Amino acid sequence: MADTQQTLVLLKPDSLQRGLAGRIISRLEQTGLKIVAMKMVQVDKDLAHRHYGIHQGKPFFDSLVSFITASPIIAMVLDGPHAVDKVRRMMGETDPAKSAPGSIRGDLGVDIERNLIHGSDAEETAKTEIALYFSAQEILSYPRDYERWIVS
After folding, report:
1. How far apart are CA 109 and CA 101, in angstroms?
2. Catalytic residues
């Protein structure tokens, strides 16, 4: 089986408020990625600051924190070959207006700040971000019979 990696995906408040969570999860699963952890979370300011710390001091930092803490999110860990890159391509550009049709943001997004989904930008970032939302015990490993047909 090919080397796999894990990535963090957050379905942001607008995904839940607009009733799009199921559609987005389905699209991600259809790529062959496997959900190995998932939960609904109400992000507090402390977690938001730790997650978005790289952006602290930038003009949009406060609005990022305000948005991600406004309503529950769904946090997931997806596992599979090239998971980070696969999710990034599926998400589309940060600005939905610049996202290609067929991407999640290109098809469903309406605003650069309310852009439905977050995905880790690199394998190392994924490890750090996953640890913010999940303990090692919450991340499961399990086989799927059809994996032998889609993952070599």
Report:
1. 11
2. 118
